[in-house]
Each structure stands twice: as C-alpha cells, then as structure tokens.
Specification:
It holds the Pfam family MazE_antitoxin. The protein has three helices and four strands; from the N terminus they run ββαββαα. With 83 residues, the chain is α+β, with helices and mostly antiparallel strands.
Length: 83
C-alpha cells in the first residue's frame, strides 16, 4: 500500500489494479488538501511540466464553455486589445 504523503514534498504513488482498470490510492493528506471525500469527482488537466488534479467544479466548466464562445466571436476585438 502507499505510505502517507507529506504535502510540500515529492512522493511516489503506486499504480494498482482496480477491477479491470488501474488507479492510485491518494493519501488522506492529499484528500484533505483537495477538500474531497469518497464519492466526490476530481478533474485532471495538463499543465506545464505535468498534470494537475483538482476538485471537479461543473460550474467552472460551463463558464469556460461560455468564455470560449465569446472569444471565438470576438477574436478580432481581443486581438486588437492585446496589442
């Protein structure tokens, strides 16, 4: 099993079999830092140098969808503002 993690330090997690899939066991300190519990959803995203694991926020996804639509419609105006 994975050993408890101390945040602020690099620690290794072992990939384990979960039914027909694979997963990692997150130490309780990581769950506390993410403010999640059993049954909660997490989001994973690519960031420079690796990945980020965050608590899932469906409201944020809707906001980003709207922002992308506005940016697509107002591309020229945003390009001018960026100068």
């Amino acid at each position: 099993m994975n050993k408890p993690a101390k945040l602020g330090r690099v620690h290794a997690l072992k990939v384990v079999r979960v039914g027909n899939s694979a997963g990692v066991i997150l130490p309780k300190e990581v769950l506390a830092k993410l403010r999640v519990a059993l049954g909660d959803e997490l989001s994973i995203s690519e960031v420079p140098g690796g990945i980020a694991l965050t608590r899932h926020d469906p409201g944020f996804e809707e906001q980003m969808k709207t922002a992308r639509e506005v940016m697509a419609r107002r591309r020229n105006a945003l390009r001018e503002l960026a100068k």
